[in-house]
Write a structure and sequence with these properties.
CATH architecture of chain A: 3-Layer(aba) Sandwich
Strand content of chain A: 25-35%
Radius of gyration of chain B: 19 Å
Distance between the termini of chain A: 33 Å
Helix content of chain B: 55-70%
Number of helices of chain A: 9
CATH class of chain A: Alpha Beta
Strand content of chain B: under 5%
Distance between the termini of chain B: 32 Å
Radius of gyration of chain A: 18 Å
Number of domains of chain A: 1
Number of strands of chain A: 9
Largest sheet of chain A: 6 strands, mixed
Shape of chain B: globular
Order of helices and strands of chain A: EEEHEHEHHHEHEHEEHH
Number of domains of chain B: 1
Largest sheet of chain B: none
Shape of chain A: globular
Oligomer: heterodimer
Helix content of chain A: 25-40%
Structural class of chain B: mainly alpha
Number of strands of chain B: 0
CATH superfamily of chain A: P-loop containing nucleotide triphosphate hydrolases
Order of helices and strands of chain B: HHHHHHHHHHHH
């Protein structure tokens, strides 16, 4: 479903070249649930942006559902749903329902299908109480659920989430996780998320990609990740150990 | 195209929820535009011709150019918000959707309050045509020039938007040519220096909005003696500029670097 082959992205910053991502290769099969870990600035968001067609790679290649996002941006957009945890893709001054209606137009979802899908998502994500509220007045948990609904209106085969649980309280976090788990189990939607919350990883992800300094540092199951550091039992300590022992930051 | 119309209709309905604000903005736009016409009036109360053209002819040039500009302004001027979308991160959201970025940027937060200006220009054009005696065989050029003018102004906005992918705060650069170009075209170009007229003919084709095709409609010789064939070349100029704008926009999107997480 997602194929990255020696994927790289560099930026020119005041006459020096910064390699945000380099030589990143991995394959995600249909129906997988993958978590992407890494310290701040490791290149997770840059990777997500290349998968979704926001940024063009400067080296290597990536395909989603067989299509290169930077060349076939709109075709890839129909295949994937994207949630940016730190910024909304909704319109601040419009009620959530109107925002979702605009998203419907952008994805050319017909009215009947839209009503059906919105009913389903409203029930699953508990949107009923705030569909008429302008997005700027929503709590972070409500906004995140609204953003997830917007990303799924067109029923994509892949859902990519960049830090979907950031800043959420325990209850909202649990609701988002339960929703994602069901989505993956029932509809077979491929899910790739980035996170700093290891609870997300332990509860949801069957597979972990660890990105460090723009490179793939680990690819395997949560148990295999735990086994990489003998003597440490909590996943929190394992990851902290791995981050601390990574080569010094640029 | 269909998506664009549906999007602006949705934003229009959103704007209609504040009817007082909408009515005031539209009225203010129409009044400001009306002052432009008053200026022409004042000029002609002191003289009988302007650059060799009488009041009806000047109003024709003003109305035809104004109509093209105001329609382009209404529909496409949001292209100058690319820099804002880059800074706010909303461009990322647009890039993950299956619709072209130009359509999304221009339709985003569309408000119809600039429609007053379109109405005003159409009235001036109508009055001018009623006072002029344009033969039926030359009328076909009027819709052609308005459409070409819309394309030319829309392309300049797109070029300005494309520039903002490189220089985020450069929206004033495009404004100089769009709003500046519209102001330029309110008077016969023969009132300006020959060098400026050559520039807006051969470099940035603003003369093809209303001046060159207008000379055909009015059946006037070019006061600056430029080739006769130029008055038929508006579609060529508009198409060339549109292609340049589309390429620049695409190059801009490809160079986009995004910001933050």
């Amino acid at each position: 479903m997602i194929d990255a082959d020696r994927l790289g992205r560099s930026f020119r910053v005041r006459r020096t070249t910064v390699h945000a991502v380099r030589d990143l290769s991995f394959h995600v099969a249909a129906g997988e649930f993958v978590g992407c870990l890494g310290p701040n600035g490791a290149g997770k968001s840059t990777t997500i942006k290349m998968l979704t067609g926001v940024l063009a790679p400067t080296s290597g290649r990536v395909t989603v559902a067989g299509l290169a996002p930077s060349r076939r941006r709109t075709a890839v957009a129909r295949e994937i749903g994207v949630v940016f945890g730190q910024r909304t893709t909704l319109w601040w001054d419009l009620p959530l329902r109107d925002s979702l209606d605009l998203v419907r137009l952008l994805y050319k979802v017909d009215r009947v299908r839209f009503r059906e899908r919105l009913g389903e998502l409203t029930e699953r994500l508990g949107l009923g109480g705030f569909l008429a509220t302008p997005v700027r007045q929503l709590s972070l948990g409500q906004r995140m659920r609204g953003d997830i609904a917007a990303a799924l209106l067109h029923d994509p085969s892949v859902l990519v989430l960049d830090e979907p649980t950031i800043g959420l309280d325990v209850v909202s976090k649990a609701e988002v996780r339960a929703f994602l788990r069901d989505l993956n189990a029932e509809r077979g939607t491929t899910v790739l998320l980035t996170t700093h919350d290891l609870g997300d990883v332990e509860r949801l992800c069957r597979r972990v990609l660890l990105i460090d300094h723009g490179r793939l540092a680990f690819d395997g199951t949560v148990d295999e990740l735990r086994a990489t550091v003998p003597g440490e039992t909590s996943i929190e300590d394992v990851v902290a150990h791995l981050y601390r022992n990574s080569p010094p930051s640029r | 195209m269909r998506v664009y119309l549906l999007l602006i209709w949705t934003w229009t309905r959103a704007a209609a929820r504040y009817p007082a604000s909408f009515a005031l903005m539209t009225a203010a736009g129409t009044v400001t535009a009306g002052l432009d016409v008053a200026v022409i009036w004042v000029v002609f109360s002191n003289t009988t011709t302007l650059g060799g053209f009488d009041v009806s002819e000047v109003m024709f040039l003003y109305g035809a150019g104004g109509l093209a500009f105001s329609i382009a302004d209404l529909l496409f001027s949001n292209a100058d918000r690319v820099g804002q979308h880059i800074r706010a991160g909303t461009l990322d959201a647009m890039l993950v959707r299956p619709v072209g970025t130009f359509v999304q940027v221009t339709a985003d937060r569309f408000t119809p309050h600039r429609a007053g200006r379109v109405l005003q220009a159409a009235i001036v054009l109508g009055v001018a045509l009623a006072r002029l005696d344009v033969p039926g065989s030359r009328l076909w050029m009027i819709p052609v020039m308005v459409v070409c003018g819309i394309v030319i102004f829309a392309s300049i906005w797109a070029l300005g938007g494309a520039l903002q992918f490189l220089l985020t705060d450069s929206s004033e650069v495009a404004n100089a040519f769009t709003y500046g170009g519209a102001t330029l075209g309110q008077y016969p170009l023969s009132v300006y220096g020959a060098e400026l007229v050559r520039g807006v003919t051969y470099v940035l084709p603003l003369a093809f909005v209303n001046w060159q095709p207008g000379l055909y409609v009015l059946d006037r010789a070019d006061p600056l003696g430029l080739p006769y064939a130029l008055r038929f070349l508006s579609p060529v100029a508009a198409a060339a500029l549109a292609v340049a704008a589309a390429l620049a926009w695409r190059a801009g999107v490809r160079r986009y670097r995004s910001t933050g997480s």
